[in-house]
Amino acid sequence: MAIRPRVSTDFRVRATVAALAVFGFFGILILRFANLQVWHHEDYAVKAENNRVALLPIQAPRGKIFDRYGEILARNDAGFSVEIEPARAKNLDESLAVLTDILSLSPAEIKRFKRSAAEARKFDSVLLKSKLTDAQVARLVVQIDQLPGVRVLRRNLRAYPFGSSSSHLLGHIGRLSRKDQEMLEQSERASEYFGVTHMGKLGIERSYEEQLRGEVGFQRIEVTASGRTVRELALRPAVSGEDLLLSIDFGLQRLVEAAYGSRRGAMVALSPKTGEVFAFVSMPNFDPNHFVDGVDSDLWNELSNSIDKPLLNRALRGIYPPGSTYKPFMAIAALASGERRPQDTIQDPGYFMLGNHRFRDSRPEGHGTVDLKKSIVVSSDTYYYKLAVDMGVDVIHQYISPFGFGQKTGIDLEGEAAGILPSSEWKMKRFGKEWLTGETPSIGIGQGYNSFTILQLARATAAIANGGKLVRPQIVRAFRNPLSGKTTEIPRAPAQELGFNPEWVNLVKDAMVGVNISGTSAGVFRGTPYTVAGKTGTAQVFSLGQNEKYSAGRIAERLRDHSLYIAFAPAEDPKVALALVVENGGFGAASAAPIARKALDYLLITRPAEGKVLQ
After folding, report:
1. Does 324 qualify as catalytic in the annotation?
2. Reported pTM
């Protein structure tokens, strides 16, 4: 009989349990695999792809800005920045605490970041700090794996090397805000700004945003779960923006700014022949570098609440009564309308009576017998009070409007103010009231409702200088490709013939030359090697009673008269025309004309000595 080995009952039990465990383990694996591959395949595939591949925008170098002689006014400085993508940050407050220690962040910087993060799109990276030091970059790189959503980037930082100088002209760039994004979406331009973090906000930076911006590039990379780059999968290089070549003489800009000092005002100088702008000054100004990555709230409050209004572009948006600088234009209007002939005279006793109201001349004793030419040289208010009443507000409007007053000039800057050239129709639309004859005399001397920009005044002065043509002011002369160096000139708009008799224009030009020989600004231009045609202006800020006498010493500084001046030179072949205002500066020859003298000396004496001659 065969002998069978005896099998332990305990062993069978253990074997059965082991087999069940093995089958159970594999069963769980199979179910888990099915869960991943069948029921949640799509979800996990998307997550894996998102974890594995990232599309990084490559910043396009913004075009640089140069003055007419090659001085660089806006450039790009390479540097390191740290950005956070809030959507990827596991604990934003903890990350900010770590970064505060590394970067020595101030409460204001944290506040600014949180404000920007609240306005950002869902997967946008938000700038925390730029211009990192090498030591800060080194510490960040060591800890970057423990800071999800945090990236250190090398990027171009917009810089304005001369700080506040020409800030209203250049403007500045800034981070895209929610308002910017909404505006782009409404204009169906949002796709152009995919991956773009900054855009032009003011000045040339804003007006020429399309040319300066360039085209963003993209890098498709493989990354680890923590965001560390493994390899590059694809690359589309960025395309640099175009450089801008301006007509501005930056040396002149700085000279005029220095001449203003702490005073408020604006000056525009341009070519009477082409309209190219040589100087575009607004004072006081501000440092645009503070705005590039978000202005500090304390600084913003200081600037926006300042009584001096440093953020106001006075050359483009400030409107002022022209005062007696209006008289040359009134003289041409009088001749063109047939209301006056050159030889017609009046007696100026020092005032003009309209009914029972006395309109006083700036010279109480009057100027005696005054014809049209003398009325400009001595600046007779009485002559123009009477002229305005004889013409009437609507005839004045008809013959003054060709000079461009009360209209935008079409300069290549956004945000220009139109000003006011009054008429009876304008008053009815604005106030719902009829024009009163008593409002007319002050119109003749550049007061009343007359309110123009300094840019308009400079352009109109150029029209007298060139014999009666209205040019369009232009600041950017050309675009230049930064890689090829190819320059593309910007076509200039043709000058508009105003149709005034050349004899009338020449008569007024001669009178304006007389202003600087024996008239109101003779002392300012004594000894110049060139001939200047000019006109002073003093514009009232508030009205005096007919029996009150103006005394600057007894009036608060900000209620004193504005000082204005217009000029062109050389008078026989004008190369430059200009207009300027010094707010609350008093008599035009005292404050504004000396600044004009410095500007003209620089353009017509200093620059030619350097081989830089205006054509």
Report:
1. yes
2. 0.86
